[in-house]
Amino acid sequence: MNKGQAKRIRTPKEIEQIFNVMRVILAIVIALLFAFAVILMISDEPVEAISSFVVGPFTTLRRFGEIISKMIPLLFTGAAVCFIFSANQTNMAVEGGFTVGALGATIVAVYFHVGNSVIHIALCCLLGGLFGMMACFVPAFMYVKFDSKPIVSSLMMNYVCMYIAIGLINHSMRDNTAGFNASATFDDTAILPKLIPGTPIHFGLIIAIVVIIFSYFYLYRSKNGYEIRVIGKNSGFATYCGMPVKRTIMKSQLIGGFLAGLGGAVEVLGMYTRFQYSGNTNLGFDGIMVGIMAGYNPKLVPIAAFFYAYVKEGAAILARSSDIPVELVNIIQAIIMMLVVAERFLYKQKHKMMVRAAEMQLAAQENAGKEAEQA
Fold it and tell me: What is the mean pLDDT of residues 212-225?
């Protein structure tokens, strides 16, 4: 084996990355094939229905803008999940953080009259982020202090956040002239401007891109991010190495909560003129799906968020133009989730790749030893 061949031997890390990408891609393909099979079975015009689902989101600028607008909140919640789950914490309060983040932005947008649009929007986003941080702080603190199960406490925290927000909107913050349960209208200086006329794409996209860049460099190019990932993989090893495990876990949850709350603030300021949610948005749970698809790597979150938003828009178009219900996207989401989180899915293929790489490495070392003896 020559040196060129030896250089092509994949390392275990490269094999792990290839395996993760293959697993996600295959999960998506299986989910889409299942969705197409459902369409073929129940639709009177399956070819047109599949065409509406696959091609429909790209047929007009307005529909493509819907994809991007659905993608924006997923960038925030997906980035939040990367921080939270990289520390191996199943803190599901991203959903609650997103809701109270929208509430915090509403408080500033309605009751704080600031003449400058930049300052007003910044204050809305700041309070929204702080509210989201508090939502994720409670389950994280209970885990660090009392060793409680974060998945249980965080799910309950989502209901606390939702009912606090709805309670305030339905009573002390309600606009009785609106005709439905909603807050008073936002000041014009608090509303995020549109980026492309004729589409719902707003300035929140720029903020989301900044968040993704920050998240990637923090998690993969900083000491603190390295500590978060090491603790997530092996907290016992991190403790042995002297890393501040509990403090780092809290830090990751607080940053994730802030990003979730910021996403809620951006969404409500960019898409609405008043707070009008009547329950959980599920955008936090969708962010968990996006984070899992991205492998908790922020640089892959935009790809996962775009795909998920595309599927949601395709399902919405399909529901409007055919007899297929919009719940089809929930089927696709469930199948992808089950296959991606299944640790044994494609395990044999991964094992074979590892064995082959090890054999090639041993052969390369033997050849190198023989060449050294001959020399």
Answer: 96
Query: Quick check: helix, strand or coil at residue 200?
Result: coil
| Helix 61-86 and helix 204-220, axial crossing angle in degrees, nearest 10 | 30
**Residue 187 one-letter amino acid:** D
Euclidean distance between CA atoms 234 and 76, whole angstroms: 26
- Specify whether the CB–CB gap between 84 and 259 falls below 8 A: no
Q: Mind giving me the DSSP string for 258-298?
A: HHHHHHHHHHHHHH-SS----S--SHHHHHHHHHHHTTT-G
- pLDDT the model gives residue 84: 96
Find the mean pLDDT for residues 25-38. Answer: 86
Q: With bands split at pLDDT 50, 70 and 90, how would you rate the model's confidence at 375?
A: low
Mean per-residue pLDDT, 71-93: 95
Give the mean pLDDT of 274-303: 91
Quote the strand ranges of the chain, DSSP E: none
Q: Is 183 helix (H, G, I), strand (E, B) or coil?
A: strand
Coil, strand or helix at 231: helix
Is the alpha carbon torsion for 235, 240, 241, 245 positive or negative? positive
Closest alpha carbon to 208 in 86, 69, 64 = 69
Q: Kindly list the domain boundaries of the chain, sorted by start residue.
A: 72-306
Q: Do 270 and 203 touch, CB atoms closer than 8 A?
A: yes
Confidence (pLDDT) at 82: 96
What is the total residue count of the chain?
375
> Mean pLDDT for the chain?
89
pLDDT recorded at residue 8:
62
> Per-residue confidence at 6, pLDDT binned at 50, 70, 90?
very low
| Torsion, Cα of 128, 212, 297, 159 (10° steps) | 20
260: phi then psi, degrees, rounded to nearest 5:
-65, -45
Cα separation, 44 vs 48, whole angstroms: 9
Phi–psi pair at 215, nearest 5 degrees: -65, -40
First to last CA, the chain: 16
Residue with tokens 């001959």: 374
Cα(17)–Cα(314) distance, rounded to whole angstroms? 29
